[in-house]
Write a structure and sequence with these properties.
Layout (H helix, E strand, L loop, with lengths): L12 E10 L4 E9 L5 E7 L13 H9 L3 E5 L11 H16 L5 E11 L1 H11 L23 E5 L5 H10 L3 H10 L5 H4 L2 H6 L9 E6 L7 H13 L4 E6 L12 H24 L1
Parallel strand pairs: 3-4, 3-5, 5-6, 6-7, 7-8
Antiparallel strand pairs: 1-2, 2-4
Helix pairs in contact: 1-9, 2-3, 4-5
Amino acid sequence: MTLAYNPANLFAVKVWEVEFRNTDQRTLIARIYQPQGTGPFPVLLDLHGGAWSRKDRYANEPMARAIAAAGMLVVSPDLRISSEAPYPAAVQDAHYAIRWLKHKALGWNGDPTHFGVLGSSSGGHVAQLIAMRPRDARYAAIPLPEAPHLDATIAYLATRSPISNPVARRAQAEKKGNAAMMKKSDAFFSTPDSIHDGNPQEILERKEKVQLPPLLIMQGELDDNVIPPIQEKFAATYRSAGGECQLEIFKDCEHEWTAVPSPEADRSHEMVMAFIAKQLRALQKAA
């Protein structure tokens, strides 16, 4: 394939939806953003946020559409929320989505050879877990009979306000007297040990054997939900473990600044696209 991804491109984008997976609670839907060009195009999975308790495939529409317009097949799936099933259900859904999209991509003019993931807030948390533990049997629990040989390894990960340390994030919610946010955390991490098992920061501190694909973290300076020191510590730990981590602090921005049209939201789109282009160039050079 041609790995080139040029943020200056401007393709028309066809958008449609498909059934992604049936669960006991509902049918999960995936939203497809397909650039209209010769292709095949590189592939990106977009994982939505919502404190594990809300939102869906529409959550990151502006960024997904912008990335697709520059020449990338982008797919945004629903994930189960905590009221439907606690940790690790959403991680299992995302793990399945990676394998499912790798299997489907060629039929949508995509080439999944160098597969990337984009994750926002709790979606960033889910993405970090899979990036580091792509072959964890618990996360891979949902079979894909059509392609049992596929795994969930990824080439790179871009995130916005990821919950890199859910223990520290819950402590921040308690400090702020944010009972609603504490409740959302406790609903997802429904057993005492799960918040430690599913904690990217602690996984690194425990020196687990993990994979460390190149990582972008975009963080709002004024975020009082996932505060900048959490990301700074995680980025430093990730680098110390041998991974490449680009941390960018967006001045005067809060947790969900990318959701509202603004120059800083546009800059976040441009930053993600530049990061992707850099990673694909490096992969092309190494090939």
